[in-house]
Amino acid sequence: MPTGIAPLPGGLLSHGWDITAGGERFVARLAEPAARQPVEAGLVAAEHLRGRGIEAGRPVRTLAGGLTAETPGGAMAVLRRTPGRTLDGRDPVDQQFWGDRLGAVHRALQTFTHPGLRRGNPLDPDAPHLGAEPWLREAVAGAATAATRLTVTDRLTYGVLHGDPAPEVFLVDPATGRAGLLDCGAGGTGPLLYDVAAAVIYAGGPDTAAELLDGYLAAGPVDEDELHAALPVMLRLRWAVHADRAARRLAAGEGGEGDGEVLRRARAALAAAPEPR
């Protein structure tokens, strides 16, 4: 029986818990039922990372040998927790670890393939729940259009995405100095700068993410010119994804006060986003 269960912060794509049982620590992730294949792709990707010297959570298989279990709430995965403390996204030294590991993960997964990986635009501007706020549909459509235009007119670096690279997903072991991550996410494939934009938002925005970006550029496959050219569009897209998911939860009666705050912050960020030239 577990002796301790604590919710993990973040969780745009899933809900997570830090669990202590039998003297060991585990991470449990619950994703929506439709995300089972992407979640399993992420678990296999973590194995790929470990084979390349990057610490990542090891999945605990079901009695039948599966990577995930079907539950009424969705697809559940349990992993043995990587040793170490989670990172503080506002600390400059931790930002360096964070950016370095995200870049290393992107580079290590350039040769990874799995049938569960999905590719495509995560937004549907015609979705009914986008009518919840008068500004929402137009803002989401504008962000999706700008991202599509960027992918057509610019040469971007594509690869396997984590999807939700919050600082709490990454760890550093004080005993060894090695940094790793709890799990590999279920982000599918797309422009790698989408992950970078997600991390920048968690860091508080571009003005407070300098060390994160320096660490990423030193370790990742994206060069500085691409980062500066495409990051504003990817930030706009990520904020639109936040708004879309918050509105979807509220429309389904599953949201809370936190989703209202997400919509407020997303509206302000999307209104301030520069229009691409």
Automatic annotation (TrEMBL):
<keyword id="KW-0808">Transferase</keyword>
<dbReference type="GO" id="GO:0016301">
    <property type="term" value="F:kinase activity"/>
</dbReference>
<keyword id="KW-0418">Kinase</keyword>
<dbReference type="InterPro" id="IPR002575">
    <property type="entry name" value="Aminoglycoside_PTrfase"/>
</dbReference>
<dbReference type="Pfam" id="PF01636">
    <property type="entry name" value="APH"/>
</dbReference>
<protein>
    <submittedName>
        <fullName>Homoserine kinase type II</fullName>
    </submittedName>
</protein>
<dbReference type="InterPro" id="IPR011009">
    <property type="entry name" value="Kinase-like_dom_sf"/>
</dbReference>
<feature type="domain" description="Aminoglycoside phosphotransferase">
    <location>
        <begin position="5"/>
        <end position="220"/>
    </location>
</feature>
